[in-house]
Amino acid sequence: MKLMVVGSESQVGHELVGLLESSETEFVAFDSDDQLFIDHRDIMQLLEEHAPDFVVNTTLYPFVDRAEAEVERCRLKNLEIPRALAKACQQLDIPMLHLTSPYVFDGDKVGPYTEKDAPNPVNLYGEIHQASEDVVASTLEKHVIIRLGLVFSAGEDNFVGRLLAHGGQDERMEVIGQQLACPTSAVTAAQVVLAICKQLSCNINPWGVYHYSDVEAVTRREFLEAVVQEAERHPELQARHVDQVSSSQHKGSAKRPMNAVLNCQKLLYTFGIKQKSWRVELSKVVAKLAEARFLPDSELKK
Fold first, then answer.
1. How far apart are CA 208 and CA 56, in angstroms?
2. What role is this protein assigned (predicted)?
3. Alpha carbon distance 298, 295 (integer Å)
């Protein structure tokens, strides 16, 4: 089995590359900032040259508020790249895995969202993700779309990384305290992607949309408290001050779905993949951030 990973700079992409290296799985990986993934001829040439069994698109523009001002960049990352990849994969009959977000839902449902619930995004970020799902599904028969929970890692493009990366209490953040979600480790998400690819390599054909998130569902306030509690185990870490606000008080330009919880039973029944605990993975991420305090800049960039 050989994978082509597009978006190796993203949280999940970075962890997937590390996992593939340690598992000695054959793969090639590319940064989605490379303009190769816009030009159809360039994509076709790469696919023909490397001949992957699966393409995994982990490309992601993760900034929900900033998307309202950086529309073209958000569309490029979250829509145009998956559109171009799906078109090329269809021509060469290569299955593709594509990662998206629970922000395709409006958040008004009581209880977790299933794959049968109709998308109804409340912001531009969600609209672009929904469009990417639609174009991948309509272009490429052999597709697996995975909506992931609230992804976190030791990088700085997620809530945990921003909260602890610099550690100055005078630097303030804002969070909608009652927004409900399922935090999901980028490491676990990468493991799920690889597990799905291994099963697909056995010539099963469960194409379609799936949900994955770690357990359990918590509010942003509760997740914040868990991150701070873990950080207190490491004296070298100091969390920024966070203002907990209501949805109406949020200063960001994008509305948020207040319920972003995913039902993951379809993934369990189809692939036998069980949900893991985000609390266990959070402790590892915080420890990694603490360790990074003692590394020189040259090491951090590796």
1. 14
2. Catalyzes the reduction of dTDP-6-deoxy-L-lyxo-4-hexulose to yield dTDP-L-rhamnose.
3. 8
Which pLDDT score is estimated for 171?
Answer: 59
Q: Is the pTM above the cut of 0.85?
A: yes
Residue 48, amino acid: E
Torsions phi, psi for 176 (to 5 deg): -80, 100
**Residues near 110 by beta carbon (within 8 Å), at least 6 away in sequence:** 259
- Angle of helix 186-200 relative to helix 11-23, nearest 10 degrees? 60
Contact by Cβ (8 Å): 223, 253: no
CB 60 within 8 A of CB 18: no
Q: Is the peptide bond before 24 cis (omega within 30 degrees of 0)?
A: no
Helix residue ranges, H only, the chain = 11-23, 40-50, 71-75, 81-92, 124-139, 159-164, 186-200, 220-231, 265-271, 278-292, 297-300
Residue 39: phi, psi to the nearest 5?
-85, 125
Query: pLDDT tens string for the chain (302 positions)?
Result: 999 999 999 999 999 999 999 998 999 999 987 667 778 899 999 999 999 999 999 999 988 888 988 999 999 999 999 999 999 999 999 999 999 999 999 999 999 999 999 999 999 999 999 999 999 999 999 999 999 999 999 887 788 888 886 555 555 666 666 889 999 999 999 999 999 999 999 988 899 999 999 999 999 889 988 998 898 898 888 777 676 655 555 555 578 899 999 999 999 999 999 999 999 999 999 999 888 766 544 444 44
Q: How far is CA 185 from CA 100, 150, 254, 275, in A?
A: 15, 8, 24, 11
Q: What is the largest CA-CA distance in the chain?
A: 54
Measured CA to CA, the distance from residue 130 to residue 78 in angstroms comes to: 10
How far is it, in rounded angstroms, from Cα 168 to Cα 170?
A: 5
Q: Are 201 and 263 in contact (CB under 8 A)?
A: no
